[in-house]
Structures are given as structure tokens and as C-alpha cells.
């Protein structure tokens, strides 16, 4: 069955086109900064937002109108698999990503749940083979079911912890079966509400134990995906343990896990943590931990994870600037962890939203390449730190300087002369580059 029969194949038509169902910037084969756009961006569809979610919010029922709405649970899951590959083909998106519970319904027991999963995974495997589309990553949903009310890998109840471990084990097997490039851990309930009833140390130790067991099992079954942790500071719990890049890296280092993981960074999670997306990417990159991106954006006027499709060109440009500077995404990609607004309930909106995100990131990629090729920011940064290239600065950087030698220098160096950072000028230059590509 064709689920999107009214939607044409989405093609690149260029900047002059006024066809809403066409790309104006994303030209997969166009070479930018030494690689095709397709190779740089490695776009992925987020299964949960695109095929599973229906627009339900805390105040109202779902609004989405989908061809599979009236089907029973397992038939619905099967229809979504077909829709997934048709959707990826129409938009020419190479990857997809899912949680276990997005793709198949839970049964009455873990055995039944795993059986449902097996049926759908077999279908996904066939779909991947027939289409050449691939799995960017899979993960386990250990936050929706009420059993995870007090956590999963940080559960207060050992029975829940054991269940979570079983779910991760199955997730790793599914990832191997489908050749996932990465395997994600996002700690939806790995945090706490109040210290009055929480043993933080035990929870963190247990979380690290779960990760060590996962590494061991992946090795045992020969699943060689890159493991990723996705930081988020809050929501659903008040204090999430993987708060941001820096906190997560420190956790991984403390528990001897750093070499086994990289980070999956999400724009709206960064802003919830009080950071920009580019800050999170820079922190990961300078620590050798940049893995993959969940592309979306928040809303300046709302304080929660709104997961909007990314259309802010300043953000997509600065994001791709960080990615290019870091040497690319490697096995990672740009996964649209984004949902259409509740009012955008038609199937066509799913396409329009992905086109908006894909064009905005392609635009950002072109602008970022130009920023680097024209040394727009590099020359400013080089000049700003030039005092560390010679004289006393070179002595500091080489490690020769001591407190005594620096004191001797400071005592006779009067007055100190500083230069302007020229931030406003740079912001305008950035705008000029974005609108020139
Ligand atoms: C939640 C979120 C998750 C992860 C995967 O905010 O981003 O969907 O991407 O569990
Ligand atoms: Co995400």
C-alpha cells in the first residue's frame, strides 16, 4: 500500500523554485567543503515523532490524521514500517532512528513484547535490504511504562533494574540484527525529584554498572556500533544525571567508560541546560566525544522541550561550523528529533517539516563552509590569541613559565593593553555570509 500517494518524489529545484514540495538548498550530490551534502549531513527520520506520535499533549487528544489510525496494535506497527521506507524514499533520507517501543507494541509479558519486536525487526530488515536505507541508531524506551516511575538504570527497585537490563540486552541484539551505526542511551527517568528519598551515589554507580554490562554484551555478540549518551538537564525528571556535555563526560571519565562512548547532542536539550547547541558541540569536540546530533529547536517563549523542526539559520550555521571544525560527524548523523506542531496534522506537514529542516541544515552547511574557507572567524580568533605565539605567551604555552617568571614579567609590564572583541561586527558578518549562500 502507498501511504503518501499524493506526495511526489521530493527533488532539488534550487533557490528560484517556489514549489513547497522541493528542496531549495539540499542538493545531496553537491560537493561542499570536500564532501557531498549527503555525506556531511547523514539525515535521519525520528520514527517516534514521524510515525508513532499523534499530537497528543497534556491538554488534549491526538490530532494527526494517518492512514493507519484505525488498525489494531500490531497491524499499525506493520503499516508504520511500510510508511517509514516510503517516506525515506520520497525525501531521499538515508537513515532512521527508533526506540524499541516506537516500532512494536508491548505485550502482557516481556516474552510477548520481545516477540512483537521480532516480527517488526524482521520487516525492518527486509525494508532496509530492499531500499538501501540504514539504521542510524536504536535505543530503548525506559521512560513511558509506569514500571519506570522511579528510574530504570537508576531504579530504586532491583527488579526494575533487572527488567531495564533485559530491555537493553534485547535492544543491543536488535541493533546488531539491523546493523545500527550507533546505539543511544538517553536517560529519560535517570534522575531524581528530591534528595529527601534519593541515594545519588548508588544510583550513579548502578547506571555505570549497566553501561559496563552493555559494553561487555555488545562485545560478546559482536555488535560494533558506536555507543552514545544523549544529555538532557531536566524533563521528565527534575534533575537528570546526564545534564549536559560536560557533566556527561565527567561521569564517563569517573567510571572508566569514556573510551566506549561518544555523545548524541540535541539542540533543545542544550537550550534547556542554558547553553547554545554550538557550546555543547564544542565541549564534546574538544574532548573527542562528538558522536551524533538530534536536530531540532526550542522556543524562546516556552520553557520545555518543544522539539520543533530546526529553521533558525544562525543556529544551523553555527552548528555545522562546529561540525566541520571537528572533522565531521563520522558514524553519526543529523537526526530530526522534531515533531510537527499539533495544528500541523496533515500527512503533507510531515514532508514540509522535513524539507524545512533539511533545507535549513543544508543552508547552514554552505554558510559554515564559507565562514571557514574565507577565514571569517578564524582570522579573528588567531589575532585575538596572538600574544600566546611569542614572548611571554609562548613561554606559558610551552610550559616553561613559572609563577615566579610570570611575576617578574608582570612587575615590569605596565600598562597592560587589551583589544576589543568586536562581537557586534562579527554578528553582522555572520548574517552577511548566511544571506550570501
Ligand atoms: C527526549 C529525546 C529522546 C532521545 C532518545 O527528549 O530526545 O527521544 O532522543 O531517547
Ligand atoms: Co533526542
Features:
437 residues, eight-stranded parallel β-barrel, two-stranded parallel sheet, 14 strands, 46% helix, binds cobalt (II) ion
Helix amount, in percent? 40-55%
Tally the helices: what do you get?
A: 16
Q: What distance separates the N and C termini?
A: 40 Å
What is the topology, as strand order, of the major beta sheet?
5-6-7-8-10-12-13-14
Instruction: Summarize model confidence as the mean pLDDT.
Output: 98
Low-confidence stretches: none
The helix-strand sequence is EEEEHEHHEHHEHEEHEEHEHHEHEHHHHH
- How much of the polypeptide forms β-strand, as a percent range? 5-15%
Class based on secondary structure composition and strand pairing: alpha/beta
Largest sheet: 8 strands, parallel, barrel
Ligand inventory: D-xylulose, cobalt (II) ion
Shape: globular
Radius of gyration: 24 Å
Amino acid at each position: 500500500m502507498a501511504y503518501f500517494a499524493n506526495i511526489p518524489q521530493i527533488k532539488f529545484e534550487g533557490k528560484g523554485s517556489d514549489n513547497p514540495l522541493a528542496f531549495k538548498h539540499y542538493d545531496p550530490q553537491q560537493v561542499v567543503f570536500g564532501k557531498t551534502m549527503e555525506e556531511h549531513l547523514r539525515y535521519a527520520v525520528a520514527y517516534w515523532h514521524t510515525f508513532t506520535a499523534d499530537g497528543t499533549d497534556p491538554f488534549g487528544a491526538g490530532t494527526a490524521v494517518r492512514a493507519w489510525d484505525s488498525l489494531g496494535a500490531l497491524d499499525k506497527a506493520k503499516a508504520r514500517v511500510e510508511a517509514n521506507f516510503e517516506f525515506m524514499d520520497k525525501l531521499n533520507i538515508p537513515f532512521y532512528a527508533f526506540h524499541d517501543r516506537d516500532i512494536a507494541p508491548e505485550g502482557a509479558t516481556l516474552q510477548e513484547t520481545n516477540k512483537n519486536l521480532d516480527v517488526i525487526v524482521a520487516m525492518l530488515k527486509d525494508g532496509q535490504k530492499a531500499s538501501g536505507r540504514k539504521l542510524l541508531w536504536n535505543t530503548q524506551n525506559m521512560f513511558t511504562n509506569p514500571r519506570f516511575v522511579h528510574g530504570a538504570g537508576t531504579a530504586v527497585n532491583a527488579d526494575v533494574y533487572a527488567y531495564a537490563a533485559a530491555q537493553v540486552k534485547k535492544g543491543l541484539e536488535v541493533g546488531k540484527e539491523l546493523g545500527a551505526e550507533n546505539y543511544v542511551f538517553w536517560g529519560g527517568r535517570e534522575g531524581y525529584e528530591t534528595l529527601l528519598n534519593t541515594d545519588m551515589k548508588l544510583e550513579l554507580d548502578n547506571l555505570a554498572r549497566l553501561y559496563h554490562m552493555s559494553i561487555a554484551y555488545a562485545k560478546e555478540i559482536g555488535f560494533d556500533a558506536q555507543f552514545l549518551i544523549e544529555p538532557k538537564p531536566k524533563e521528565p525528571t527534575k534533575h537528570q544525571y546526564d545534564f549536559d556535555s560536560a557533566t556527561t563526560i565527567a561521569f564517563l571519565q569517573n567510571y572508566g567508560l569514556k573510551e566506549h562512548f561518544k555523545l548524541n547532542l540535541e539542540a533543545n536539550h542544550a537550550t534547556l541546560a542554558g547553553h547554545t547547541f554550538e557550546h555543547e558541540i564544542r565541549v564534546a569536540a574538544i574532548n573527542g566525544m562528538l558522536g551524533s546530533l538530534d536536530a531540532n529547536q526550542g522556543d524562546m517563549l516556552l520553557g520545555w522541550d518543544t522539539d520543533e523542526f530546526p529553521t533558525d539559520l544562525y543556529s544551523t550555521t553555527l552548528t555545522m561550523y562546529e561540525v566541520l571544525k571537528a572533522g565531521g560527524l563520522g558514524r553519526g548523523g543529523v537526526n530530526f528529533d522534531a515533531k510537527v506542531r499539533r495544528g500541523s496534522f496533515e500527512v503533507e506537514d510531515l514532508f514540509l517539516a522535513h524539507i524545512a529542516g533539511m533545507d535549513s541544515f543544508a543552508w547552514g552547511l554552505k554558510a559554515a563552509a564559507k565562514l571557514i574557507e574565507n577565514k571569517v572567524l578564524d582570522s579573528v580568533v588567531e589575532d585575538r590569541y596572538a600574544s600566546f605565539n611569542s614572548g611571554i605567551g609562548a613561554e606559558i604555552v610551552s610550559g616553561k613559565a613559572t609563577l615566579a617568571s610570570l611575576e617578574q614579567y608582570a612587575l615590569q609590564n605596565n600598562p597592560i593593553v587589551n583589544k576589543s572583541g568586536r562581537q557586534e561586527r562579527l554578528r553582522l558578518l555572520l548574517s552577511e555570509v548566511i544571506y550570501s549562500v
